[in-house]
Design goal:
With 504 residues, the protein is an alpha+beta fold. It contains 14 helices and 20 strands.
Length: 504
């Protein structure tokens, strides 16, 4: 069963206007006004306008009378659609091979088979919402079994994200208003006149009278929301993408047949990439079945490559994930992320190259779902938590070297943990310390190593000091602990003790 994410961008039109016109004051309420003949109403409101009680659907004249200094901009659906398309193409390169626009203010994503690359559904939604927030766009995201359910919940939930467990779609959407079924306004108005308020009430009503009066659309939308009728997602594609296709007069389904044609598509794709001087970083295989459903596989690489054999292997490793159903009628292979790649001269040498290329190993791990692959590199900072950063495992060295003046632990805590200590101030090491409920007597100690705050980072570090000690307890375990402050002046720190790392 597929899993679908619906992303709702409630302030996309107002955010687009603010980006296009920086002269609009940040604290001024902004609304987008739609019109039909002489009728004008609010199509979208920003956060400032919403706090003043304005909401979409309100008559524009009423909003103007209620709020002074109200900025009113005429709706531009074409510009909104262009902005939505840019965001959809960005999501295509980041989250899943199957992403489509859900106009006027949403994006829909089929994440089946791709969520494990993001660490699971909940981390994926959290990362997605945070990514939009970083772009200055509030977003709400819901993952459910169907497009209709995810679309409806994304526009009704109070929070930013929600995961609907598999198989619980019917119970979850039952209390939603009938307007969430994506029906036209006149149909919704007529259903309310008949006394229908929720999706559950409508679903429990016999279909024949509703179809006789309103046509088949209500039953179709209900079946799509509840998963009784498929609603395929047509993935967005950019003309800039390098893409190759293969259609079949007779549907195919055998794994070896699929593998054969995938290899042919990879060869054609690499030939097209070579003509443009590009290498692929992310390739998406789209499988079109005869029952009008779509499946997708994604293969990513740590560096741009154009190696037919290697790309074929990466895709072949995941062919077992394909369910051909009643047969596959079309295969598409697209390079959705590319980078320049120049041809290199092959060097002949009797001495083996000492450089080890780990790119292939990283590709295998990443495509199996090990999504947090990185290596650490030193940073010019004395503060331990700032002295390293994570970079791509195949990234070039940044030019810094590791400090060897003082030893550093092999494991650094994510956050220093508070400990209880008995020690003489200001410069003596602890006699004992208690960490996680266990008291440890110190047998040997080295220090203190004084680390000063970095005043250029923030004002609270102007006088900050840490005194670090390497201590060994009676069992031979070695720890890295520090006192916040110099032990004399209270302005330098709280004089509390923390455990920050452990040695091998």
């Amino acid at each position: 069963m597929a899993r679908v994410v619906s992303v709702f961008l409630p302030t996309l039109p107002t955010d687009r206007v603010r980006r296009a016109d920086p002269s609009i004051p940040a604290d001024a309420p902004l609304v987008i006004v739609a019109r039909s003949g002489s009728k004008r109403w609010l199509l979208a409101v920003d956060a400032n306008a919403a706090r003043l009680g304005l909401h979409p659907g309100m008559p524009a004249a009423k909003a103007q009378a209620l709020v002074q200094r109200l900025h009113m901009v005429d709706a531009d659906p074409a510009a909104d659609l262009v902005a939505l398309e840019r965001l959809t193409l960005w999501m295509l390169t980041q989250y899943s091979p199957i992403v489509a626009m859900d106009p006027p203010d949403g994006i829909v994503v089929d994440t089946e088979g791709a969520d494990h690359l993001q660490g699971g559904e909940e981390p994926m939604l959290s990362r997605l919402v945070n990514s939009f927030r970083a772009k200055g766009l509030p977003a709400r995201a819901v993952v459910a079994d169907t497009w209709g359910a995810a679309h409806a919940l994304a526009r009704t939930i109070a929070g930013e994200a929600r995961v609907v467990p598999r198989g619980q779609t019917t119970d979850t959407v039952a209390p939603l208003p009938i307007s969430s079924l994506r029906l036209d306004g006149e149909t919704v108005k007529s259903l309310r006149t008949l006394g229908f308020r929720t999706v559950g009430e409508l679903a429990a009503t016999p279909r024949a009278p509703l179809t006789l009066r309103f046509g088949p659309e209500i039953a179709r939308k209900l079946d799509q929301m509840l998963g009784r009728l498929a609603e395929p997602i047509d993935p967005i594609r950019s003309p800039e993408f390098v893409e190759v296709h293969r259609s079949f007069a007779e549907p195919i389904g055998a794994p070896e047949t699929i593998a054969k044609y995938v290899a042919q598509l990879v060869g054609r794709l690499c030939h097209a990439l070579q003509a443009k001087g590009l290498g692929v970083r992310r390739a998406d295989l789209i499988v079109h079945r005869v029952d009008n459903t779509v499946q997708a596989l994604r293969a990513g690489t740590a560096k741009p490559v154009r190696d037919v054999a290697w790309l074929t292997k990466l895709l072949h490793d995941r062919i077992e994930k394909i369910d051909p159903g009643y047969g596959i009628e079309k295969l598409s292979l697209a390079a959705t992320m590319v980078e320049p790649l120049d041809d290199k001269q092959i060097v002949s040498s009797l001495v083996a190259d000492a450089t080890v290329d780990v790119g292939a190993f990283v590709d295998v791990l990443a495509n199996r779902g090990t999504y947090r692959i990185y290596r650490v590199t030193p940073v010019a900072s004395d503060v331990p938590e700032r002295s390293i950063k994570r970079i791509s495992p195949v990234a070039a060295d940044v030019g810094q070297t590791w400090s060897t003046i003082w030893p550093r632990p092999v494991r650094l805590m994510d956050r220093p943990e508070l400990i209880e200590v008995m020690a003489l101030l200001p410069d003596h090491p602890p006699v004992w310390f208690t960490w996680r409920g266990k008291r440890r007597r110190v047998k040997r100690a080295d220090g203190p190593e004084r680390i000063f705050g970095e005043w250029w980072q923030r004002t609270s570090e102007w006088a900050a000091v840490r005194d670090y000690f390497t201590v060994e307890d009676e069992t031979g375990e070695r720890y890295w602990i520090y006192r916040s402050g110099d032990g004399v002046d209270a302005q330098t720190g709280s004089h509390k003790w923390f455990l920050h790392g452990m040695f091998a």
